[in-house]
Amino acid sequence: MKSKAAVLYEMGLPMPYTKSKPLKIEELNLDPPEPNEVLIKIKAVGLCHSDLSVINGSRPRPMPMALGHEAAGIIQKIGSNVQDFKEGDHVVCTFIPSCGRCIPCKEGRPALCETGSKSNEKGEMLEGGKRLYSKGKKINHHLGVSGFAEYAIVSTHSIVKVDPNIPFKTLALFGCAVITGVGAVINTAKIKAGATVAVVGLGGIGMNALMGANLAGAKEIIAIDINHNKFESAKKLGATSVYDSSDEENINNIKAATNGGLDYVFETAGVVQAMDFAYKITRKGGTTVTTGLPHPKHNFSLPQVTLAAEERTIKGSYVGSCIPSRDIPNFINLLKQNKLPIDSLFTKTISLDEINEGFDELANGKTDRLIVIP
Fold first, then answer.
1. Fold of 178-318
2. Which residues pair with residue 23 across a beta bridge?
3. C-alpha distances out from residue 205 to 19, 178, 184, Å
4. pLDDT at residue 215 above 90?
């Protein structure tokens, strides 16, 4: 069958993307779903910095690639061996397929699935190979989803069945922003009620980390970013104070205001300078957690003595250390209880044809979350 999709042929084209147009909207051919795969009609997909990091080249991937990973939709057709899903099911896509067989999967850490990671790096499906074509040439899959499209072929290991009564533009965010941000707080850091928390970087993941900290009962939540237009939204989501991270003097200001630093600091920007800021405002005995994905060649340095002498902890958090089949339904229930105000993050919906303009807005920090409705 055929599907309109957004395809990236070259990484690193200059901004503004409105002019360079890195994403080409074209009609692709899709193979039918193979065993353990489904065909999904994409109903909503979010623009995320993980997509932007492929566009700007900081997250190298094989080209050409059909982008998009934070998606939700309806199953249209199932392949053989599919048992837990049926046509008509509403599903959220997850960007790390879990094979269930490797050591991380057996340990209950599907975000670290070795097979899924290898297939994502190759631009392939979990089951191997590619299902997308343009003019007879194979197109790489983005994180097993390729959701900037009308339709997508996705592994059953990359989807979670969800409540059909939730709007798709809300559901899409549970595929990345929610599980990564809230999950980093709840699963990775396991913060305790009464803890002090800071979040450096107020994109979609950072805003969800704020919600997670508020949900977990943090007594103080500091929101930090270089964009002041993020501060009002952060306050509405539970931030007790806000600071500009471009002013290095605010490191001392925050430490003075918090009696030496915070218990938990989350770096969600994927920028080394943000990680440096986060580490420096973490108190002795505290934990710095990063969800960011900077370019592989960018290095973070620190005084090694502080790790031992101050009993510091640095932790990475990928996909919020989530088990998607468990956590996505749980987080959706919190949404239904009005404990996760996800809808407050929406800026607007756009069409596939407006996607390059959308990434300009995302890159410039002018938006919280844009949702593409194919």
1. Rossmann fold (3.40.50)
2. 8
3. 28, 7, 9
4. yes
